[in-house]
Amino acid sequence: MLTLYQFPNSHYCEKVRWALDYKHLDYRIKNLLPGLHDRTAKKLAGSSSLPILVHDGKALQNSSDILTYLDDVFPQNALMPEQESLQQEVLAWEKFADEEIGIPIRLVFYHTLLEHPALLVALFTGNGPWYGAFLLKAFFPRLKAAMQSNMHINHKTAGAANKRLGLAIDKVYDRLRDNRFLVGDRFTRADLSVAALLAPLCRPKKYGVDWPHPYPEPLESLIAGYAEKIAWVDDIYSGYR
């Protein structure tokens, strides 16, 4: 049995959920509470980062490593092209997405959402244990301080992250002007990774989270400014999620 330990709102966890669903695999989800997940994650895999996929007694951490494992062990609906040259290009796009999209989006979002505890608690505890919202409300001031410290979230870093995100979105948009897919002529983990990590800007229903409508400002205005350039994300979700 495959078991995914995750945060429901995490776009890195969405990468793994999407791969599991794309391969039509049966799996269980264990939703953990941010800040309180450390003990479980470290017991399973040695560090606190999620997602963690457990299969046949093996615990895998890091979304990219998990996608590689899934393709190796469950080759149906492969997420990598057969050509070696294209494989390297796919992995380069995934690495770009992980570093230049996933991290900046996380910082920009939390810079705003940490100032809206009720909204963020709802995102963190959706589909989780019944006591999650009560527990996280009480714990939230400590969680906020820890997240701001560990992720270096402040006005200056959020501004820099927004610039990085804008450049990354421009790169993806330019690539897709004359192409349906990022690499080759079919859907790969490059498309999955970029779309999943951009998803919080698009709020796709198939992500499985009740997104806020609207987001608090300035987040909603930021998203509106990117709408045309990230419309591809909704197309990919519609066709492949």
Q: What would you note in describing this structure?
A:
This protein is of the alpha+beta class and about 240 residues long. The protein has two domains: about 1-75, Glutaredoxin (3-Layer(aba) Sandwich), CATH 3.40.30.10; about 85-240, Glutathione S-transferase Yfyf (Class Pi), Chain A, domain 2 (Up-down Bundle), CATH 1.20.1050.10. Helices cover about 60% and strands about 5% of the residues. The chain has ten helices and four strands; from the N terminus they run E-H-E-H-E-E-H-H-H-H-H-H-H-H. It has a four-stranded mixed sheet, with helices on both faces. Helix 1 (about 10-20) packs across helix 8. The longest helix has 30 residues, at about 85-115. The radius of gyration is 18 Å and the shape is globular. The model has no long low-confidence stretch (mean pLDDT about 95).
Low-confidence residue ranges: none
Proportion in β-strands: 5-15%
Distance from first to last alpha carbon: 22 Å
Q: Can you name the CATH architecture of the largest domain?
A: Up-down Bundle
Overall 3D shape: globular
Rg, Cα atoms, Å: 18 Å
Question: What is the N-to-C succession of helices and strands?
Answer: EHEHEEHHHHHHHH
Quick structural overview:
By secondary structure, the chain is of the alpha+beta class. It contains ten helices and four strands.
